[in-house]
Structure formats: C-alpha cells, structure tokens
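Would you mind writing out the residues of a protein together with its fold in token form for me to study?
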Amino acid sequence: MKIEIRPAFDEAVMSAEQPVRKAAAKMLVLLQSLELVDLWKHPGLNFEKLHGMIEPGTGQQLYSMRVTASARAVTCLVSGPTLVLISLHAQHDKAYRKR
C-alpha cells in the first residue's frame, strides 16, 4: 500500500506536541508494512468510515484512523491502493466535524 501525505497533515504533525509526533511517526512505519486488507483489521488503528463525509477536492470517502488515544488522522483511499493522510486532529471529536 502506498502512502501520500498532504501538507495539512504534515504541518499538523510538526506543530503537535511530542507524544503525538512520535505516535504519528510510529503509525507511518506501521502503515508501510500493511496491505489494504490489514488496514481494515488492525485493532490499534481503528480505521473506520466517516459516514456522510467526503473530501471536497476529490469526492473521495473520508475515513478516520487512531494516532493516539485522543488524536485521529483523517484519510481517504485512492486507486492503487494509496492511503492519503489528509489531516491530523489532536482532539478526535474535531476530526468528525463536517468541513
């Protein structure tokens, strides 16, 4: 599985507190070792569909993935398969608000 990192995700990681930065780095290493089918089943990532939410630029379905107990990454999947890391939210409730 390929991974694409959008600038907003990268900027949010860089401005996050150190525990979130470390967890994001650990998550990226893990993602590089997974196949798409493993992503859905991985118990620590809690990869789940954000119902009714799409990425405005591409129309792709949005998903949420656990980074830490409170931080979530918002992602989408594109052909290839490629996992696109769109944004990072230190407080997971903010990840679920419509854009």
About this structure: Strands lie at 2-5, 48-54, 61-66, 72-78, 82-89. The CA atoms of residues 40 and 64 lie 11 Å apart.
